[in-house]
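Dear colleagues,

For the upcoming journal club I promised to circulate an example of a predicted protein-ligand complex. I picked one with S-adenosylmethionine because it came up in last month's discussion. The inputs are reproduced below in full, followed by the predicted structure.
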Amino acid sequence: MDEYLAVNRTTWDERALAHAASPDYGLHRYIEDPGFLSHVVRFDLPRLGDIQGLRGVHLQCHIGTDTISLARLGARMTGLDLSPVSLEQARRLAERAGPPVEFVEADVYQAVAVLRKEAFDFVYTGIGALCWFPSIRRWAGVVADLLRPGGRLFMREGHPILWTLQDGREDRLLVSEYPYFEREDPVIFDEPGTYVETDVEFVHNITAEWNHGLGEIVTALLEAGMVLTMLVEHDSVPWNALPGQMEQTPLGEWRLADRPWRLPHSYTLQAIKPPGDR
Ligand SMILES: C[S@@+](CC[C@H](N)C(=O)[O-])C[C@H]1O[C@@H](n2cnc3c(N)ncnc32)[C@H](O)[C@@H]1O
């Protein structure tokens, strides 16, 4: 296994348990209410459309909350993730809360080998997903290969501009500190926390991450033969990405407290693989 995968997997494995126990993920809500949907899936319901009966794969499903939500909307879902501990939590939740979901352990770059080429009507991903890939072109090729002709990519992701910003600034300035464009070398972070509230003290804190510009993401998809059908930028994001600088919206998202219109916080992108192959 590549060194960056091993490092990232260790960090995610450790966080998965804390996430499953956290009030922010609130897993009990899925068990108590069979109609409960994750915040992320609910946010995009107007754009998602009818997925009843579709075969879907959720890349980087983590502990399965969005995957199960998509299954609750009628899709036959497979969730894929690198982290076995995340998948253990996801399987446990699906068993207790339903409906059934298949969970598969793999690096996204190996997804076609472990699943099947053109086996899916839609690929769903996002919210802290793309930063784990050294090459966005290779990722786009995987997405296109997983989709049947006519199939659709649906993703909502933190905006690459947001990923450039330094957090924890007491002066509340927006300071672009990290790469916007994809670079060969990853940025190595050593951060003790996570994006949900938890008292857990983590031991493994190193991650290797890459940013990809919005143009690079779109171009990679176009070069993989996909057709862009939606690109909406949002002035909010599902997690508190800049602690001390954000406030919660009535929809439970987070946005800059001071003039949020300065920053694209996140985006929803859809693309289809043209019917009749590429
Ligand atoms: C920020 S989490 C995704 C969170 C998810 N959107 C949610 O809200 O539950 C990132 C996930 O990507 C997974 N991951 C990181 N690199 C990966 C890779 N190369 N292949 C597959 N999964 C990967 C991690 O194990 C982790 O579960």
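Two points we might discuss: The first helix runs from residue 3 to 21. The pocket of S-adenosylmethionine is lined by residues 5, 8, 12, 60, 62-63, 65-66, 81-83, 86, 107-108, 127-129, 132 (CB under 6 Å).

See you all on Thursday,
B. R.
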